[in-house]
């Protein structure tokens, strides 16, 4: 695997070739990664996978015409042909008045901040196998677990480099680790499955394999013999592992391209109070060791901590340069980039700030409701905000979480759901999007 400087050289060299060949402007991205994953099942090694890959992408501009092309081959002759084809494609492309590189005066200048994304370690397959075995052993040791779908441990490293023809050159490098287990409880047709996992940039930040496995086993056992739920308008409580999807729907709706195309249910909501005044949602790309940390975005702009929702109020859109130009605004440092295609947008490390109540206090006044720990289906309409998803979880009766329930649907409208949302105080920073336990009153719940 290349060093970050070698990766950056590849991007810089491709931009220089494009400029020499006649491009008015250009940028290039280079990405490489290498990872090892070990899978075990029922105490035996099942698979060891080593993957390595690299890709380079080039975007060229001829006036307001542009084209993007990518290659997984780094052969000099192939890259030379890549430049030629990109320019030929740009000549045939339609003019786009919003196309172009990011504003030069907004580029990240000086030293690139260190977000501590790489711990420099390289675990061998044997150590990963031991971690996976320990995780599965802990899951299978939980009384009531009857079978295993396996456990896994992985380690890898990646490099992302970006160079532009108007003055930016930088590279990010990151390590990544993961541990997971999936097991079954119950017998025959009454078997239930559940899982647990953790990911981290630094190996030392991972939970122990035993803790992950134990949680997977306990979750599976709790799901055995699910009952049915009574349909009605009920309080719904979201487990943190699936509650982050609600924040994801918010971020999808405030993307600059969605606003520019007028295809978002939040089109007229800028500056509005979407949530209770006690709620803020933060995007923090510079958080050390964060799963989504990055010092610069996909166009070379600096990143910064942003309150997307500040005391309940929507503060702005999430924009790359093209959408910003279309809206008459400035890009926000949220551009994301793959090898092919124009930049899109994405958040980095998101979290919804925790509330003041414990989970027990949050549900203490619920006479009849549901605690949701699994969602299915894709029933979310970002144009209208309508929300309808399959779910599984547990009944809440007289302020206590009781028996498991499954095969029901929860529905509402995201605007109403945001206004009714109340967070508990159990926020943990263990994912790229982190939320505490969330309560939303007044959702429609229907048994299948």
UniProtKB/TrEMBL annotation:
GO terms for molecular function: metallopeptidase activity. InterPro entries: Metalloprtase-TldD/E_C (IPR045569), Metalloprtase-TldD/E_cen_dom (IPR045570), Metalloprtase-TldD/E_N (IPR002510), PmbA (IPR047657), TldD/PmbA_N (IPR035068), TldD/PmbA_sf (IPR036059). Residues 330-351 are annotated as: Disordered. It comes from the Bacteria. Residues 120-223 form the Metalloprotease TldD/E central domain. Coiled coil: none annotated. Residues 33-90 form the Metalloprotease TldD/E N-terminal domain. GO terms for biological process: proteolysis. Residues 231-446 form the Metalloprotease TldD/E C-terminal domain. GO terms for cellular component: cytosol. Belongs to the peptidase U62 family. This is TldD/PmbA family protein.
């Amino acid at each position: 695997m290349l060093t970050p400087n070698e990766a950056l050289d590849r991007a810089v060299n491709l931009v220089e070739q494009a400029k020499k060949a006649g491009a008015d402007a250009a940028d290039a991205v280079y990405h490489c990664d290498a990872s090892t994953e070990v899978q075990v099942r029922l105490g035996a090694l099942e698979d060891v996978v080593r993957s390595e890959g690299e890709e380079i992408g080039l975007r060229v501009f001829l006036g307001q015409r542009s084209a993007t092309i990518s290659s997984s081959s780094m052969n000099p002759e192939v890259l030379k042909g890549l430049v030629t084809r990109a320019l030929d494609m740009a000549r045939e492309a339609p003019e786009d008045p919003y196309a172009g590189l990011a504003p030069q005066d907004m580029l990240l200048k000086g030293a690139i901040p260190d977000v501590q994304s790489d711990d420099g370690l390289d675990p061998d397959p044997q150590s990963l196998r031991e971690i996976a075995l320990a995780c599965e052993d802990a899951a299978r040791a939980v009384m009531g677990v009857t079978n295993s779908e396996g456990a896994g441990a992985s380690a890898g490293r990646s490099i992302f480099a970006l160079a532009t023809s108007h003055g930016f050159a930088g590279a990010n490098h990151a390590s990544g680790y993961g541990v997971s287990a999936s097991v079954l409880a119950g017998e025959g047709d009454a078997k239930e499955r559940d899982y647990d996992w953790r990911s981290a940039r630094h190996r030392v930040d991972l939970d122990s394999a035993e803790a992950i496995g134990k949680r997977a086993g306990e979750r599976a056992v709790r799901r055995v013999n699910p009952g049915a739920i009574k349909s009605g308008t009920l309080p719904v409580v979201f487990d943190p592992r699936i509650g982050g999807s609600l924040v994801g729907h918010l971020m999808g709706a405030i993307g600059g391209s969605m606003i520019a195309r007028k295809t978002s249910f939040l089109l007229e909501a800028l500056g509005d109070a979407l949530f209770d005044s006690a709620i803020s949602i933060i995007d923090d790309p510079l958080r050390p060791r964060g799963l989504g940390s990055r010092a610069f975005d996909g166009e070379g702009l600096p990143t910064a901590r942003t309150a997307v929702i500040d005391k309940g109020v929507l503060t702005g859109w999430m924009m790359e340069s093209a959408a910003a130009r279309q809206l008459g605004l400035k890009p926000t440092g949220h551009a994301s980039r793959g090898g092919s295609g124009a930049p899109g947008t994405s958040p980095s490390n998101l979290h919804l700030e925790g509330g003041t109540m414990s989970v027990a206090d949050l549900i203490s006044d619920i006479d009849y409701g549901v605690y949701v720990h699994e969602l299915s289906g894709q029933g979310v309409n970002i144009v209208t905000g309508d929300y309808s998803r399959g779910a599984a979880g547990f009944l809440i009766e007289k302020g206590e979480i009781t028996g498991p329930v499954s095969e029901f649907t929860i529905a509402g409208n995201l605007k109403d759901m945001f206004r009714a949302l109340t967070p508990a105080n159990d926020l943990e920073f263990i994912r790229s999007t982190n939320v505490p336990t969330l309560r939303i009153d007044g959702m429609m719940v229907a048994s299948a």
